[in-house]
Every structure is written in C-alpha cells, then in structure tokens.
Amino acid sequence: MSDVAVIGFAQAPAERHSAATTNGVEMLVPIFHEVFAATGLTKDDIGFWCSGSSDYLAGRAFSFVSAVDAIGAFPPVMESHVEQDGAWALYEAWLKVLTGEAEIALAYGFGKASAGNLHRLLALQLDPYLLAPLWPDAVSVAALSARAGLDAGRWSEQDMAQVAARSWACARGNPRALPPVDAEASVEELLSRPYLAEPLREHDCAPVTDGAAVVILAAGDRARELCERPAWITGFEHRVDSAALGARDLSVCASAASAGQAAGARRAEVAELHAQFTHEEIIVRQALELGDDVVVNPSGGALTGNPMFAAGLARIGSAAAQIMSGRADVALGHAASGPALQQNLVCVMEGR
Amino acid sequence: MSQPSGPQTALHAVLEISFDYTRSLGPTLGAFMTALADRRILGARASDGSVHAPPFEYDPVTAAPPEELVEVGPGGTVTSWSWLPAPQEGQPLDVPFGWALIKLDGADTAMLHAVDAGSAAAMRTGMRVRPRWSGRRGSGITDIECFEPGEPPASGTVSTAGTVSTADAATVAMLTMPITLSYEHTVSPGESSFLLALAEGRLIGQRCPACQKVYIPPRGACPVDGVPTQDEVQLPDTGIVTTFCVVNVPFHGQQVPVPYVAASVLLDGADIAFQHLILGCDPNEVKMGMRVKAVWKPREEWETSLRNIEYFEPAGGPDAPYESYAHHL
C-alpha cells in the first residue's frame, strides 16, 4: 500500500450557458493542458484515467466515450467511468494508486447542465416506482429538507441567507467561480426577495452551471518529485443514506457524519463542502463536526458555481490547492450526490 | 439546425428524447400498487416494529423482505412541505401546489406526494390531509392524484367514484413510466464548419497539428494526441468502402427497403471513415476496398446535414489494396 497525494488540480471557468457540446471535450482539453503544464506531466505518464459524467445530463448516449477524445486515448489507455460526480471517479483512481496498479492517476468530471432542464431531469435519480413518477424537481426536494431544519430549529432563513452572502463574498477571489449577479446584496435584501420554492429563495440554490474539473494523484516518492508540497490523502470515505426520502430525518445527514468520522474530518482547518443549497452547508458542517474556527468554502463553494459531475471533484481539488500552496496544513474536500444529500464523500488531506 | 446569429455562434438545435420504461413490480410493490387500485394504502412492518409507508422491499436493518403488510391511513399528517408556484410537466397538479412528506395514520415513515392546498398560506407542518384518488386505477403511485387538506371520512370508506374489493381488483404487476426530456444541443466549432459547408455541397475535415491525421467530421480533439484540430481541409466526395454489412433486419423507422448496405466510407484524403449507405448496386456486389462516390440530393433540399448525401454508389476503377486501408478498420 502506498501513500497517495493530490499533486495537480484544474477547473474550467464556471459558466451559466457554455457554448461547448455536452460531451465535454471543449471544456476538458484546456484544463488537461493546464494541469499537465503545472505538473510537468504528459498524457503518457498517466497510468489510470477515470471520469464522472451522465448521459441523462448530456442528452446523448455514451457521452463519456466521446469525452475520451480529450485524453488522446489511442493507443488505448486504462480507463474507467462512473455515472456520478468526478469525486467518486477520484475514489476509484485513489484505489488504483493505493493498490499499486498505477503510480499516477487522473480523475475528471464534466457536465453541461444548461443543455436540458436540470431540476426536472434530477427527478430521474429518485426511486423509479414511488417517487420519479411524480416528477419531484430537485429544488422542491431540497426545500423539504430546508423546511425540516427550520421546523426543528436547526437553522433560520437568516442563517441560510448568511451562507449565500458569505459564499459570494468569497467567490470574488476565485476567477473560476460564476460572475456574481448581485454580490453586494445584504442579508436583509436577500430575505426580502420572493420564494422560488418556499422556504428556498434563489440565493439558497446553486445556479445551473456548466463546467469541468480534473485532479491528478501520485504515489509516494513520485508525488514528492512532482509537487513541492503534495496534499497527502489521510482519509477517503463515502457513505449512502436511504433512497426513501420519508424514512430519514432530512434536517441531519447520517451518511455525511459517518463518512466524516471515518475519514477524520475533525482535523480539518479548512473545508470545501459540496453544498448545493445554503441549508446543506449547515447540515454538512454539523455532520462533520467542523468547529467555528474552520474556514468553510474559501472558493465560494458550489453556490457560486455548481457544474454537475465536476463540482464535488472541484471541492477536493480546491481543498488540495490550499495545502499545495501552503495556506493550510489539513484540508477537507466533500462531495455530495443524489437527492437531499443522500450520498456523501469526504477526503481529508494534509501537508507534510 | 438553426443558422448562427453571428460568426462565433455555433449551430444549435432542440432534441427531444423519449422512452417508456416498463418495470415489473415484484411482490411488495406489486401488493402496494394493487391495494392502491383498491383505494387502500399499505405499509410494511419492519424488524424493529415500525411501519414504513410506502413499504420497503427489504428491511433497512435485516435486509429481509417484509413479513407483514398492514393498512395505513387514509388520513395523514404533513411532516415537511414546500410550495411550488410554477408546476412542471409531469407533476401531479398543473396549478400551484405543495410538495409534502406525509405520515399516514399508523405509519412511522412519510410518503412524498402533492397537496392541493390552494396557497402556501394554507400549508403548515402538522396539517391533516387525506388522499384524493385519481380517475385511474392501476397507475401506481399516481392512483393517488394528490392529497387535500382535511380529515378522511369518519366511516373509513373513501370518497371516490366507486370502490372495488381486493378480490375484484386485477393484480398490478407491471408499470410503464413514459419519460420525455428536451435538450438544446450545440455542435462544436469544427462540427459547425462541417455542417455549414455541407449546406453548400462541400465536405470539410480538420487536420491534427500533431499527427497530421485528417478527421471528418471534425472531432474537436484528436483522439490520438488530445489536442484541438483546427486546420480545415476540403475533401472530395469520393472514397472507398473499408468495411460494410448487409442489413436484412427490418426495424422501426427504417427508411431504405431491405436488403441494403451500411458501410464505413473513407473519403480520399481522410484518416477516419464515417458510416453511410451504399446503394445503386446489388448488395452482393459490394466489396471491401471498392471505390465509391457520393450521390447528392437535389440542391434545393440541401441543409446543414450529412443527409445531403443520399448515398454512395460504385465509382468504378480498381479496388484499393487491403494494405492501404487495413489500419482504418
């Protein structure tokens, strides 16, 4: 078993309406070049490739196979795909390096969510017998979770608006976040706006976003050669909650708590959380038992750019960048998938 | 495809895809859906004694199928809710409504459904609701059209157009869920050039700056080198058949009578073949390496599509030697 570290990260600028195709090639080629230039690697150095994307999102069959063009995959490469956020592709890549099957591995995720009706489309990730036939949209499902926490006294609409205001303020320092529509809006101003799906307002919901992200992993000495300060992975865990929305308490998140405990989340000084709604940041923060001194989402987080199938991977990459740049010693990246934080992944990294 | 509104705007078009998912229900959901057709709602008793409604198929703790299904409701209590001002296609109601998690009387878990409450002001956590049955039976969870505020009738008999006993209700064993999704597809800049040139009767490929291979249609990135292909190359409408098959199987939407030949056509000067039809000869005469030329539709029918070439037909001349195209197979 090897020590494994993140040694490279790049993400495409988040866009509300990308001109790219849904197979991701145009968004991926520039970030592959960027991450190779930064690490001094070429495609021939990569022993394993793994991607995260969805044909439902792309509206075409085998979109991930078209995306492989961006790799330059002839002669054939060792390659895999998950129909999940690229963070789960990174987990598969991590296992390949950990078990010695590859020395360097690359995970990427891409999505052009603006091509279809994202919030309607996401009904198809629900139970196909009892839930999907009702076509519950993703914002309404999240709103049920937000209401559960409001009713339980776990947060207020003011707390939620504060998360939004802080996220957009942080995003000013992140050139890859979406351009803000109204970064200056105060919490009071946000709370005076109409509901999108009560109790959620527009600022509570991550914008529909197109984008892509890539993370490179390397083993032991190879990581030390390639990166001055690798982000060593000390805990990498994922867990899942019941698919039955009415059978769990939507104001808390047992799977995030369990993944966080197993991965050692409480060590983190800085955390990038994949919260697609303001209240989800509060839930995950509580589930991971992050103290008030932990810096959460210095990049602005998914609320300021949520490319489907790439945003979770970008959280891990952004957390790793905190270590590689020397700004933090222990950082945490979190990714979520499914309705109302059903699936949670936690990656804890440290500088040495 | 729409014409671009400016030189930098890629071609784009709406694509609607649809598919009917037909699913078998199995013993637990089959019993649940059959009971719905009978205007009754069932839950499953779990190993810890709690009642899950809708029923689980496998116990969340022991993973065993439920031993007992018990009737719950029809009244229930809202445990969480949201308000949807603008309903979307396929949702239970086409007027603003509430989504709610509803704990049916006798159950310990909640069911997701719509509540027809008129306005958000009429919704609250803890409100009592009752099912409103749809006019259809056997449609699964949508047999319940929605819930509405209020208690169920005291007698326990349910207000519907009529009731049937379990014995009369046909067993619901299969459900079909039609799915329709709409996308706005954009083509890449290279594909845009290719399609716009086709509308003028020209064939445009792109050359990889690293390996010099010519791709038609352009692919955005060279699959060998992973670099964008940018240099445009005009190609002739002649080439060879690399490989082919004779289609004898009729299928829905088929546009050419069987038997006919679908082939990989490699244009002269190109390094990748694309699929097209070979007509204008007996299928038995088609060979690997055979020279072919495009047969174009009448000019007035040209659009931004490879369908402007109706098919390829034999061009005569000697066949290409196998070695010249072996690496394209």
Cα-atom Rg of chain B, whole angstroms?
30 Å
Tally of structural domains of chain B:
2
User: What's the shape of chain B?
Assistant: elongated
Structural class of chain A: alpha/beta
CATH class of the largest domain in chain A: Alpha Beta
Tally of extended strands of chain A?
A: 13
Low-pLDDT sequence parts of chain B: 1-8, 158-168
Strand content of chain B: 35-45%
Q: How many H/I helical runs of chain A?
A: 12
- How would you sum up the global shape of chain A? globular
What is the name of the CATH superfamily of the largest domain in chain A?
A: Thiolase/Chalcone synthase
Query: Could you say how many structural domains of chain A there are in total?
Result: 2
How far is the first residue's CA from the last residue's CA of chain A? 18 Å
Supply the CATH architecture of the largest domain in chain A.
3-Layer(aba) Sandwich
- The averaged pLDDT of chain A comes out at 95
Mean pLDDT of chain B: 91
Strand order of the largest sheet of chain B: 7-6-5-8-9
